[in-house]
Predict the 3D structure of the following.
Amino acid sequence: MLGGEKTAAVRERLGALTSDVRLPDRYQLVQSLKAAAAAALAWALTGWWLAAPMALMAPWAAVALVQGTVYRSLRSAVELIAMMASGTLFAAGAAAVTGNTMTAMLIALPLTVLLGNWLPVGEQGLYAPTTALFVLAYGTYSLPAVGHRLLETVVGAAVGIAVNAIVLPPVHSLHVTNLAVALPRDCSRLLRDVSEGLVEEYDEERAVGWHRTAGELPGALSELRAARGWSTESFRFNPGHRMRRSTPSPSERWDVVWAQVGNQLLAITLTLWETASERRALPRPSGAFLKELSAVLAAASEVCAADETIMEQGPDGACPEERAGHLAEARRALAGAKRHLDSPGRDAGASLGSLVAGCQALLDDLTPGEDDSARLAGGAA
């Protein structure tokens, strides 16, 4: 019996571990296969053309230059060749002067590590000391051998760039759209959760969870801005982007709107947290007010859900009338909530006023203006 319980526990633990494992997506799989193909091609090319018995530099450079964008491959190629050339020259020079591999290593490695950290080459700086180690492992430091290593590096770099640019060159526009869709979806879920919690007896722990979720929205916006940069970069020097399926990116106005919405949600959930905390003197609003506030947030959640549909399906799947109806419903509920502002007590008025002001600003941010036509017409720039 105990053995059966232990087996069940082990299975449950293994299931939890495997559920956390994220399988590689199509982009990662394609880039991995391209890197392997580039390395094999560079090895075969240098072995056949240059007759190199152990051409490590070429496949190493080829793998390193199958980057996330063609532009990044080109930019990294200059830095990588410079670092690998520096490592080769430092190692060969130190070995030629000292005549001893260990002594040459003690001289070359500090210099190459310093060079890689000092120059603005980012991750490519690591290739200077590692190349020095490879050159010292070869054991040949003559001028023809050094020239051979440099030529192998250039050939490998050319192969890596060519494979990345010709074979399914990476385009990242779809990731931008997926992140843009996630913003209204996350806001809608949070608003719905808060709306349902207000009609119940919410406690401090639940309010803290709302505020923590609202605090994650700026991180999603930062991820979207980074994805925009990747999307723009992926079209630079990309010879095959016209043949690849791409998705129109939303306008930057979309980011501004949801940054404002996220700020309002952060303020509203903070006030709710403070009214639920025993360490604060801010009293909890009355049940009648919370019912009105719940109706406001529920209707605002439907507005966000409509924006999610607009971004996900485009103008064909959009229903502006339905969105406008939810927004009008939210404003009617807010008008009902404002009637409670005349409640006695300055402390109660402070909490009610903060929540009403936050909801008013939230609905104003969700109301389309003249410059929001692109956002409500599919969000495509």
User: Anything to note?
Assistant: The mean pLDDT is 82.
